[in-house]
């Protein structure tokens, strides 16, 4: 994945400000320490953009924000509900502090974190043109956002390790039926929801959770949803796939 590293370095070198786009449902897991270190090395300012905020409660958002703010300024965005883009535009202008030319903003992050949606949101009616940048990795695009801002949109080709399968599942890079371990990913989702918004999980699957054990919760959901094998035991693979699907479709609110 050498070309990925070259692309990231190149974008960081060219940009005046960087956006690290993370999924607000699991910002810690979708941050990338290598990318952050590279930005810091290049002495460029960056903003952590928490996208898909419509899928996260206000309370959880604020908690995450106060932690992440120690690293970089944090902006909440929901492209779906169209909020946060004015704030982001404002932050970019403030951080870049460039008066005499256009500001180049690089956007980085895992695939499906919402990079293109964030850019489209900020660009909105200002969109004038998009173009591929010659000499760049396929898929890197320059988007003119008007009002002195230009974005570099990148494909999120961050290399994954085997153990990152759950990030791929949670981000919807791999759909549920293609996961090697859908049950494992589902258990992560259950753990996360039980810690952060158990009520939403209970309401969605119409269950009352008493156990602390995420596998018990998966079985409970399976029984309630009637996901059973012939002998009457819970079909854990089928329930797992279902939970991952619901998460990927944005039906489970953290
Ligand atoms: N609920 C919700 N979904 C979003 C939001 N932004 C993006 N998505 C979804 O996330 C997926 C990836 O978005 P995209 O912008 O293509 O991500 P990119 O790969 O990082 O450029 C798409 O299915 C979008 O519909 C948002 O604000 N809210
Ligand atoms: Mg994109």
Automatic annotation (TrEMBL):
GO terms for molecular function: GTP binding. Keywords: GTP-binding, Nucleotide-binding. Residues 4-160 form the CP-type G domain. Gene3D superfamilies: 1.10.1580.10, P-loop containing nucleotide triphosphate hydrolases. It comes from the Archaea. PANTHER family: GTP-BINDING PROTEIN-RELATED, GUANINE NUCLEOTIDE-BINDING PROTEIN-LIKE 3 HOMOLOG. This is Putative GTPase. The lineage of its organism: Archaea, Methanobacteriati, Methanobacteriota, Stenosarchaea group, Methanomicrobia.
């Amino acid at each position: 994945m050498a070309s990925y590293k070259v692309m990231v370095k190149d974008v960081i070198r060219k940009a005046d400000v960087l956006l690290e786009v993370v999924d607000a449902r699991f910002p810690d897991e979708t941050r990338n320490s290598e990318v952050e270190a590279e930005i810091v090395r290049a002495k460029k300012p960056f903003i952590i953009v928490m996208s898909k905020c419509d899928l996260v409660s206000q309370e959880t958002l604020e908690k995450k924000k106060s932690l992440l703010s120690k690293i970089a300024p944090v902006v909440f965005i929901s492209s779906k509900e169209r909020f946060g883009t004015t704030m982001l535009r404002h932050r970019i202008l403030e951080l870049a502090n460039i008066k005499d030319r256009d500001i180049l903003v690089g956007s980085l992050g895992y695939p499906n974190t919402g990079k293109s949606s964030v850019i489209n949101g900020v660009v909105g009616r200002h969109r004038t043109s998009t173009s591929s940048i010659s000499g760049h990795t396929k898929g890197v695009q320059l988007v003119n956002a008007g009002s002195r801002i230009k974005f570099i949109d990148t494909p999120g080709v961050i290399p994954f390790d085997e153990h990152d399968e759950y990030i791929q599942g949670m981000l919807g890079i791999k759909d549920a039926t293609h996961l090697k371990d859908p049950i494992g990913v589902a258990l992560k989702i259950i753990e996360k929801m039980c810690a952060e918004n158990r009520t939403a999980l209970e309401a969605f699957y119409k269950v009352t959770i008493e156990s602390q054990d995420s596998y018990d919760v998966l079985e409970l959901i399976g029984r309630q949803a009637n996901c059973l094998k012939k002998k009457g035991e819970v079909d854990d693979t089928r329930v797992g796939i279902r939970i991952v699907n619901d998460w990927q479709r944005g039906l489970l609110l953290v």
